[in-house]
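Re: weekly structure request thread

Next one in the queue (333 aa):
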Amino acid sequence: MYDVITYGRSSIDLYSNNIGVPFTEIKEFSAFVGGSPLNIAVGTKRLGLNSALLTAVGEDQVGEFMLSFLKKEGVETKFISRKPGARTSAVILGIEPPDNFPLVYYRDNCADSKVNIDDVITARIGDCRLFEISVTALNVEPSRSAAFYAAEEAMRKNVPILADLDFRADQWHDPRAFGVTTRAFLRNCSFAIGTEEEILASMLKDPEQIRIKNQQISAPEIKGDIDAAIRDIMALGLDVLVVKRGSKGSSVFLKNGEVMDVPGFPVEVVNVLGAGDAFASGFIFGYLNGWDWYKCCRMGNACGAILVTKHGCANFNPTYDEVMVFVESKEGF
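Done, posted below.
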């Protein structure tokens, strides 16, 4: 049995080596791997869980690059299918800390959007301890219906479902479609994790509420009442909603109305991309080890804090021992 199966997007990530340089002046990139579910599969594996990834790659060398990395990490890859005629997706990132990270996705005809119901059946979702999904998988068919089928299988076997809200505005034909689809899917879920912006996007009714700033697709500005949005999401039936608040840490909202704020760890930021996935990895690790919600989020905060000091995402996820050394240096949990 797998501890966790993650589902959704996967990519080669080309991250600028010229840190602090405007995107138009970048001279060279480093090649890593990425995509939220891939990052979480690697992150949870490095912490000590038995992790599998459900995604797809093209019949191309980029797919070989990703598979080679995952196999070396020990992440189960047998649920990663090849999709003839599709391409493994790619991401290009500029790095201008502390708060400018222009991001470009190449996902036209991408392989991971071709994951289908047959792929889900092969993965036997009902046999894992936790199923994690990136909401970007809901943006197109057939990956959308495959996701709902996977949720049905998980629920039938009482497997908890964790949704990473993962709002990427340019991956939806209308930002309101993200909200409608996300709300429908969250009715199947036990947990959800997202930033304040992602939670507001989940409840988005008016497209005038959203503005993409400086082409930073991963960091939209969304107007709205965050407290009301949290209440509305919880009303969909979630047991737990975790709000990622960056340097401020995280907050946990429970079905019984309890709320707890969990402080973060002060660090110097190099690259924020992937920090949320590192957080999710730590949170999942804590949950599957029976920790309380505070300690789960504190572990997530530590993993995210470590990652923002690094160049990339999955390639730099910390091990359990590395996290323990870090938190001890910061006065522990």
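The radius of gyration is 18 Å. The chain is about 35% helix and 20% strand.
Next request, please.
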